[in-house]
Amino acid sequence: MHTQEAPAITDTQTPAAPPAQTAAARTAQTPHAGNPSRRALLLGAAGVGALSLAACDKPAPGGSAAAPTLSLPAAPDDLVFLSASKLAQLVRDKRVSARQLVAAFYARIDAVNPKINAVVQFCRERAYQEADAADASLARGQLLGPLHGVPMTIKDSWDTAGVISTGGTQGRANFIPEHDATVVARLRAAGAILLGKTNTSEFTIGGIAGLGTTANLIYGMSKNPYDVTRSTLGSTGGGGAIVAAGGSPFDIGTDFGGSIRGPAHANGIAGIKPTTGRVPRTGHIVDYGGVFDAYQQGGPLARYVEDLVLLLPIIAGPDDKDALIAPMPWPDPAKVDVKSLRVAWYTDFGADDKGEAAKPTPEMIATVQSCVKHLQSLGCQVSEARPPELLAINDISTRLREGDGNAWQKRLVEKYKTTVPGPARRFDYPLLKTEDYTELLEQRDAWRAKMIAWVKDYDLIVSPVQLGPAPVIGSREYEGKRGNSFTSTYNFTGWPSGVLRAGTSPEKMPLGVMFTAQPWREDVVLAAMAEIERRFGGWQKPAL
């Protein structure tokens, strides 16, 4: 049954505690303890001033209740544009309440979402109930966790208990899960409050050909907050857009071939795809197992790198369900000596016997080079060096995805009883012979071995994300060009890879740069991103 938004709870209503079943599920899936750097972030909030914000929650159709106008203490910038880390500290210090945060972010969503179509499901009544319960808990001296009272949104491909979770496919248009995905349960157990779900492409792997933005047949297409004629990229485009616009401090996306890093680039925010095996996929529309098991990882998107550092340890670690997840220690980015890093960089895929790869725009190349020059100025050992056979592995991966006639995606359609799949969903690719398919798998693994041998000489790899800024919706500007996306390389290897805004195109659109490291070295990626953010500024507020 399709549920409607419930109206907000006013201050005169009695706060309700979260349902016992949900609380028990959250407790059962609490992750391992965080590291000292995360606690240090929470204790390092900036000074506080006073700012009055009108934070009224918009009632659902037929509803009348609304959150009151609130006078909110905040840091010098608008409350909704602060980092999750600083918001958590404000709540801990009782300078702002969880209810005030929920009201402020809903007000921002109501102001911007009609223009960008990023948030597609809400749980307002529950969010206010959980906020009131969090405030009451803090008043008793009980801290729920490092995200106590901090709002969040979640990509609609993750299951969220009691909230419609479609995965962008028609067969789940009214599906309400009974349980949270592992990452969602961990965030809620850490004290985060779900505001709603963000738009995704069908199954997170496309669905409406020709648009070039996050879109599906249920909710339509999402638009870029810096220019609503332009793409959010995908498939975490809804999450990228609402975080950039200030409607959420952070979102959790997934990345099968660039679905975190592409939206981070397009929407001018920070995002990271962790190492394969770091974050459980349990409760995701495409979960774990199969030929492409190693390709997909979940990870956070936020406006600030410090929030990626805060969030990743919370959602990482085995859940005893996703068999690929390893109990690896979390390395502290604060301990990385950025000045000593050995850096490789490149701006295109080179050439092979089929011709040259596409070239990025001059501004994209210049943005990468600016980052590299800054790292060099710090003392990093810098080399212009391209990984081996990039065009070849992209061709191999394409043939693998299509080699079974796309039967693996057809099984998804049948599993979720989707009778009207997205127009881009094809099931008629030519079938490869078994011996040809297994040979491709062998070629893929041989390339992975070459990559491990190549990367031993480097700690950090710097490259573009795309050929240029987010394209105009429907333009097909980069479609069909070989080497048009730099992200999928590191899905094939499984290495940690993050994106941060470091420049601006002539069209005034964000330009992201990608930072990749050896397996399990998220600390190197995040430390480098933090340094580039310090130098070039990172996220900039859109004039939406």
TrEMBL record:
Highest taxon, organism lineage: Bacteria
Compositionally biased intervals (Low complexity): 1-33
Protein name stated in the entry: Amidase
Any one Gene Ontology cellular component term annotated for this protein: endomembrane system
Entries under Pfam families matching the protein: Amidase
Family matches, as InterPro entries: Amidase_dom (IPR023631), AS_sf (IPR036928), DiOHA_6PGluconate_deHydtase_CS (IPR020558), FAAH2 (IPR052739), TAT_signal (IPR006311)
Organism in which the protein naturally occurs: Solimonas aquatica
Domain Amidase, first and last residues per copy: 101-526
PANTHER family associated with the record: FATTY-ACID AMIDE HYDROLASE, FATTY-ACID AMIDE HYDROLASE 2
Molecular function in Gene Ontology: catalytic activity
Region (Disordered): 1-36
